[in-house]
Amino acid sequence: MTKSNKYKQIFEDLSEKIQNGTYKTNTILPSENELTGMYSTSRETIRKALTLLAQKGLIQKLRGKGSLVLDVSRLNFPISGLVSFKELQSSIGREDIETTVHEFGLENADSSLSSIFEVADSTEIWNVVRSRRIQGERIILDKSYFLKSEVPLLTKEICENSIYEYLEKELELPIDFAKKEIVVEECTDEDRRYLDLDDYDHVVVVKNYVHLKDATLFEYTESRHRLDKFRFVDFARRKN
């Protein structure tokens, strides 16, 4: 077995043990020396596995203390990246996520949407409302709008699978960049209808303004998240 396969195998084993509670939240993993013995491998290989665990948001390395197990009941959502939900699901290795399309169709832009897209009120826009069920609870509501001029055809089946996969592979849209805004808002009647909110009366809202290479704003999405289940992460490095 190559070193590459070895560290990935160790990562997968430790990841599974964190997910199933063998290593509990807020406890310290065995030391690098202990892990080296447990897996009969080099310290370099263990460090690579731990680095990958940290990148996936499963542990936090603490100087002089070891690797702290983080709360994996919260999913990590990247702030700066432009990633589809299906790609995110694949990257975090979750199989217990279900998408339900609640609303789908064409509508004429109202004053709010026409202002966002800077188009006339009569402009046709696709409206897609989807909830994401994770571990049996509906905890994300995605409200997406797409300009029909840029997305001539859309179906409910595409929305249930992956809109971005369709846009890039079938329509070959040159999706380039997005501006994101994160706010906390009071729950709406729509949130209460489509989400399992428990006693929460606010949601975290990530507003995505997505542009093509020619700078055309073709998508606006509000991703509405239950407060207790999500953390939003980014990686930053100070310039020297």
TrEMBL record:
SMART domains with a match to the protein in the record: HTH_GNTR (SM00345), UTRA (SM00866)
Gene3D superfamilies referenced in this protein's UniProt entry, alphabetically: Chorismate lyase-like, Winged helix-like DNA-binding domain superfamily/Winged helix DNA-binding domain
Domain HTH gntR-type: 4-72
Protein's GO biological process: negative regulation of DNA-templated transcription
SUPFAM superfamilies in the cross-refs: Chorismate lyase-like, Winged helix' DNA-binding domain
InterPro entries given in the database record: Bact_HTH_transcr_reg, Chorismate_lyase_/UTRA_dom_sf, TreR, Tscrpt_reg_HTH_GntR, UTRA, WH-like_DNA-bd_sf, WH_DNA-bd_sf
Gene Ontology molecular function terms on file: DNA binding; DNA-binding transcription factor activity
A Pfam match: GntR
Keywords: DNA-binding, Repressor, Transcription, Transcription regulation
Keyword flag Metal-binding: no
Protein name per the record: Trehalose operon repressor
Native organism: [Bacillus] enclensis
Lineage, opening ranks: Bacteria, Bacillati, Bacillota, Bacilli, Bacillales
